[in-house]
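Quick one:
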Amino acid sequence: MQGSERRVNLWPVPELPDVAVYVDKIAERTVGRELLGLRLASPFFLRTYDPKPERLRGLKLLAVSRLAKRLVFEFEGELFAVLHLMVAGRFRWDDKTPGTPAKLPGKLGLAGFDFTSGTLIVTEASTKKRASLHLVEGRAALAAFDRGGLDVQRATLAEFAAAVRSERHTMKRTLTDQTLLSGIGNAFSDEILHAARLSPLQMSTSLTDEEMGRLFVATQGTLETWRALLAAQPGFPEKVTAFREGMAAHGRYGKPCPTCGAPIQRIVYADNETNYCATCQTGGKLLADRSMSRLLGADWPKNLEELENARPAAKLPANPERSTKVPKPAKAPRAPRVAKPKPES
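Output:
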């Protein structure tokens, strides 16, 4: 069986479609409203010491925007709050008693942005405190958080191709490198590559113009389709997950490919996995799973046919009379030890 049985990384980093919907939903509820205060429940969440959180009190929120996978809250006076949810960070919205700070979750709560319209709560469902908040002043300080990746939704084919071919990496690495392309992570890179019918291990510099065109259309189409689907869901988005109904490849290991019906395969590495269809993306070739292929060596199946024909070894019959196992010969008993006489003094 390929890879580990466990499902890895149940808490994904929110990617471009998730962050874009967060931006829209938060902006609807907070832009133009006064911030009554910022409460910090975790000392690890705030990563800057100046400006102080008290500087935001009483200021209006002017805009909410996206910077790759980060969210940027712009307040009056060019004060910015930059949030990165990382793996397990999420938002909640509580407007049951507008104007009154909502209670923060005991174990999960990181912070509460108390607006006149309600409280934006930041949570993190992990003991590893990776989510971060930076408070900065001035647009020059804000620009330091831009890693330089191309905004693929606004890019032309030429700009996209130049970014993809600028460095030699696997396509999986290229799509998720924030210095090359902005906002794409583990889940949606699988969906993009499945839609483009490209192997996750194909090198970025080896793409033909035709393959690059397929990748460009698949990237923009996949991200926009999922952004629209998530935006259409009612209420505030509180359940952000890597495994969604309707996905073609990601999180569907062993399930049939919606295009050809072949079982979706995967490569497991660290706390992540890459899902792909061998028939649609790799010409039937199974990609080597780092952990299992090293263990199995030459026994690792090279294609779907070998995987399908692989069977577990037959068990030995339970009847001892029919067993082909050769018993080991009985060991001869050891001779008793004889104590050596001690020399006379």
